[in-house]
Amino acid sequence: MNKKAIFLDIDGTLVNHHGKIPDSAREAIAAARKKGHVIFVCTGRSRAEIPEEIFKMNLDGIIGAAGGYVELEGKAIHEVYIPKEEVTHIVNFFEANHIEFYLEATSQVYASKGGKAYLMAMMNANIARYPDAKEDLEKNMLSFIAHMQDEGDIIREDINKVTFMGAQLSLKEVQEEFKENFVAIPGSYGREGELCGELMLKEVHKATGIEIVLKALGIEQKDTYAYGDSYNDIEMLQYVACGVAMSNGAEALKKVADDITDSPDEDGLYKSFKKYGLI
Length: 279
Hints:
By secondary structure, the chain is of the alpha/beta class. Helix content is 34%, strand content 23%. The protein has helices at 23-34, 52-55, 84-96, 115-129, 134-146, 171-177, 206-217, 234-239, 251-256, 268-275; strands spanning 5-8, 38-42, 61-64, 69-72, 75-79, 100-105, 109-111, 159-167, 182-186, 195-201, 224-228, 242-246, 259-261.
């Protein structure tokens, strides 16, 4: 079997919604790599947001910040930054509209004044809803929140992407404000009745990151698989030869997918890897 390149979203795909990597996913990844395939996480998270647990899996590389950062065998080979004047525009608009946010860079995450408190409230709401998952939820969120920087000047030149939370505006209103240079997509998190989402530079998405990886490795597009569950996975699933949506994923993603597999908790990655002969 030819070497395949496999790209995995993290949240809701490699890990469940409580932040846990199922044992079946670990087994599938190890078996696929043993057969000679290469595996990358391809995530909306910046490098600074990726849990240490995933780095310990020693995957072949990272596509982070939804295509804004590409790392191959431990070395950064591509980074795209939001111009500083645009970062200023974003911060000013969100602060004026009482929207919490965090700015995602490769080595650090910079939060709005109320960003940490919003994330803590969101975590506690999830614990109340899923008390049996308390340990996993806290493990996933507390370290991330603790390492956020929310003091001093957060307007920087090394920002790849922006996440916003708790907006009372519509997605259309946010997109209208930033339509010249950005795409706004909804997130699958946040509190009921509030908009959360991501701002990404136009022409930068997961598929552009995949294209860079394939060129660097000399792997053809026909030998690619990708797995995802969210709106920022749409371009990725459309680009690869076989794009698979998780059953827990967004309906818009399922419409463009070549196939649908079960959720992380139902061993979706393992089942799909088996189905396509990757293991």
